[in-house]
Specification:
By secondary structure, this protein is an alpha+beta fold. It contains 4 helices and 2 strands. A two-stranded antiparallel ribbon has the order 1-2. A hairpin with a 2-residue loop joins strand 1 and strand 2. Helix 3 crosses helix 4.
């Protein structure tokens, strides 16, 4: 049996990466992948990682990740699981995700920069 140590204080308690509560979890985070797999018996997708976000954020991330060929969803018929951190702990959401189109180029550029930062963070972690 494997035991995951809890994430450090000051980082997201779902994915162990520092981000705003309104932002997606880092689907590339090893902690998130292991935690999610232990809880749901499958690997997380980007659809799961953004499921707790508002519809505009979901749409922006989906569009930006699709442009990079990185968007992922669970197989048809498998529910998307979104988990959010609140002042009361973790809140699970299981639902069909609705995606809206991106509304501005600025949002698209912001999401692109955030994805690049996550990729850079993953590379730095892999090198350590």
């Amino acid at each position: 049996m494997m035991t995951l140590l809890p994430p450090a204080k000051g980082v997201c308690q779902v994915c162990a990466v520092k981000h705003e509560i309104r932002d997606p979890h880092n689907q590339q985070s090893l902690y998130y992948q292991m935690w999610f797999n232990a809880k749901y018996d499958r690997w997380p997708t980007w659809a799961d990682a953004v499921a707790h976000c508002d519809l505009v954020t979901q749409g922006a991330w989906k569009s930006a990740l699709r442009e990079r060929g990185a968007w992922s969803e669970p197989p048809e018929g498998v529910p998307i699981h979104g988990v959010a951190t609140t002042e009361h702990g973790l809140v699970e959401m299981k639902h069909e995700m609705t995606i809206v189109r991106m509304t501005t180029v600025e949002t698209k550029e912001t999401i692109g920069k955030a994805i690049e930062a996550l990729e850079a963070q993953d590379c730095a972690t892999a090198e350590d």
